[in-house]
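Help needed: design a sequence for this.
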């Protein structure tokens, strides 16, 4: 019996040692892979062409600070960025590290071409981009003109897409078939910066006739002394009641 116990003990020890050897081998392989795969991936990335990932730029607002980081993939970081065609809005700059930053001083849509080069200066890529600076003053119908008995009523919504307050004037005229204009709405007040879709109602009683409703919206910005305008015009609205 002692001999059997000794044989069993030796077998168990051998099995345990074999298991431990296998585990150590697996750990060595895992460690090698852990060191090798990231290096392999980094090498593949460095050898791959650069692709620009930032193709849809966030819109900018007039006189509001803008910041956007351009991003790319491939080659060796850090990347170096430059403008090689087109133009950016005035007072917006592209930094070497890919940051668009500044306070735009003009509105509109601006197309430009960037060149991104990797840190080894061996791989580069071009990309056309568009940066839109929103229209400073926007106006649209909130409730289109509607005839109710002898009245025409409605409302407009106005937005200030800038970083400065406007001195706003809204004039609403109903113009009949012979060209006679009658005021059915007037507002004059400060329109605060970055105001979105502020509703302004209008309406009044009119005599019988066919009317087109014209809305003139004027925003004056005192610092730059600029004036922005928006205009709306309805179709014919018939007032069938009244004198």
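Sure. Designed sequence:
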């Amino acid at each position: 019996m002692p001999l059997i116990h000794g044989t069993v003990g030796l077998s168990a020890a051998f099995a345990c040692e074999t298991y431990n050897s296998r585990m150590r081998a697996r750990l060595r392989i895992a460690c090698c892979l852990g060191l090798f795969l990231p290096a392999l991936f980094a090498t593949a990335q460095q050898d791959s062409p650069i692709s620009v990932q930032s193709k849809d730029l966030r819109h900018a607002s007039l006189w509001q600070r803008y910041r956007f980081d351009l991003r790319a993939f491939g080659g060796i970081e850090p990347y170096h960025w430059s403008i090689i065609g087109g133009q950016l809005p005035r007072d917006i700059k592209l930094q070497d590290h890919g940051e668009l930053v500044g306070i735009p001083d003009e509105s509109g849509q601006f197309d430009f071409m960037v060149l991104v080069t990797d840190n080894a200066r061996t791989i580069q890529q071009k990309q056309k981009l568009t940066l839109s600076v929103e229209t400073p003053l926007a106006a649209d119908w909130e409730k289109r003109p509607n005839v109710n008995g002898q009245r025409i009523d409605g409302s407009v919504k106005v937005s200030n897409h800038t970083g400065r307050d406007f001195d706003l004037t809204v004039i609403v005229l109903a113009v009949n078939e012979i060209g006679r204009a009658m005021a059915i709405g007037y507002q004059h007040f400060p329109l605060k910066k970055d105001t979105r879709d502020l509703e302004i109602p209008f309406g009044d009683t009119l005599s019988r006739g066919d009317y087109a409703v014209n809305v003139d919206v004027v925003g004056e910005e005192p610092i730059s002394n600029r004036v922005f305008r928006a205009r709306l015009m309805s179709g014919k609205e018939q007032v069938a009641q009244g004198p």
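The longest helix spans residues 2-47.
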